User: What shape does this take?
Amino acid sequence: MKKFFALLKVSVKSMLLSSTNSQGSSRKKAATGVGAMLLIAFLGLYLSGFYSSLLMHALAPVHMEVLVFIFMGMGALVGGLLFTTFAVKGVVFGGRDNDLLLSMPVNSTMLMASRVSAIYLENLLFSLFVLAPAGAVCAFMTQSGVGHSVLFWVRLAVAVLALPLLDTALSVLMGALVAFLSARVARGALGQNIVMAVYMVAVFYFAFNVNGMIEGLAANAAGVKESLSWAAPMLWMADGIMGDWGKLLAFAACCVVPFGLVVFGLGRVYRQAVTAFAARSARNDYKLSAQSASGQKKALLAKEAKRFFGTPMYFWNAGIGLMMLLAAGVAALVMQRDLQELIGLLGDALPVMPLAAMVMGFCLCTSAVAAPSISLEGKYLWILREAPVDENSLLRIKTGFELLLSLPCTLIAGVCLTIALKLSAAEGAVLVGAALLFCVGHAAFGMLMGLTFPKLDAVNETVVVKQGMAVMLDMFVPMAVLGVCALLYWLGGMLSAWAALALPIALLAALTAVCVLILVKKGPAMLRAL
Assistant: This one.
């Protein structure tokens, strides 16, 4: 067991922690790992708290609280798959230290178990912050006394521990398929992008239709439960949490058995699988063909675009905010009548334009395109440095690529929201102008963070994009700035309507100017130091 825990420690660090560089301090490693875990916990807590409350409000009067745990269990399962499927490709099958570990006197099944256990711990974190809030909401809002006994929480704890086992087994199988496609198919990234696109369409569809679904649940809760017989493990889990120990044990067995089969089954062929994937991906097929001529800027932009759209982990993590931004604008136009009714009910108590600006700003905060671009160059950064292109041009191209993506999306979303919310021309101009200003500042700040906290020795792109210090800061620091802007708007409103708008915009303009100035003056030297 001592060997297993040592291997597990290495796998957990590979899964959750990332340093800034090979000489980074343990404090930076810990901060990055904590940031990644906090992000997962926050998403689970927010989604579970919000949707559990909506569901419980509709289902508690008809004593069908069990449906809350069915839907939250499905959410935890699907969310875990989203978080870890692509990570499996890098952590389990593509770890840079696999050659070293496989050469040690360690059984390959034990190594496989340690890798898979690291995936389990991440799924466990998300499962905990999805099911535990659902249990708290149930105990608080129930009308039948469910959740008021110690045994209820014991059964919930069993479900929290068991569900990630099933989630991990499915993640490993899907991750193995992704690794196989990446190694065997020339356009493996295209298939991964299609899978993620289908998933996001389903998420957006659910988000836009959740209110109608909840109304239907209240009217026919028993029928909905019967229609979910295809998801038998989730029904067993929910019934078990509500008090059926037999079904809870059946659910636990349904989770433990697949996990054991995956660990011992793939463990027997783990060495062969890792070797085959690595050998296939390392092979280079050279073909002589005519090369099209292009300028430096065009070539560098094409290189950035190829990496962004050709790396599913990068594309879906950095581009999801821009997709949400466009979806929010289109949804506002589609649901224009409902929005106007809501605004009419709330009257002057709702600052419409500032809230729209906050929504747009939040979406842009999650679009960290420039921040990881330096680290994604990895050990090949020297090739870019040796190219006949000065540092200023390289930084402008990398920063400008984010702006090429974010500025059009921001403009389209701003115009859609202006029309849907029936803002005046002046209010619409302020909304779009402030959002565009935020885009510029966010791109410049992200590039500065990428230069300040590079991760050039990352095992794979997952570590850079999901857990890198630069990405974390590029997301959360601008969110804090949005919070300060909201405070300034409130304080300025005590003086005049003009001051309420002028103060946050002045702050954005000042911070953007500072970030751009530092990037222009210090950026080339920071890049040269790498």
About this structure: The radius of gyration is 25 Å. Residues 299-529 form one domain. The chain has two domains: 2-281, 299-529.
